[in-house]
Model the fold of this input.
Amino acid sequence: MIKVYFIWFIVFLSCGRGRDSEMDTNTKFKSSRNLTKIKFFNKRVDFGYVNSDTLLTGKYIFMNSGNFDLIIDYVSPDCSCTDFYLSKKSIKPGDTAYILLKLLTKSKFGNEKIFATVSANTEERLYSLQLLVNIKENLIK
Done:
């Protein structure tokens, strides 16, 4: 019970009470940075059925549709089994870039749904990418 109160106390102190907080409950970003717009051409890649021990690479293409340079702060896959590659960290207005999510299906079976969070200097602070796959066991060994 003491652990619960301690954790609550730490969360309470870290919430920025009495200070200007960068984010509100709607994950809108408030900053002196120039905010721009991002347009994802796809946020979801579905590979359907694949054999185990397959390397999958999902490509997520996006464009800076705003008036200022788009800065990707981070890409964070929710699983340590997933790696990523970002083609550009800074994207000029009108330019495109992409994110690759790579998943090795070795030792995985059944439906997998991998998420990655993307943060950028946009009004909507966070974006979610999905990689979907149904992994079947190799019958031929």
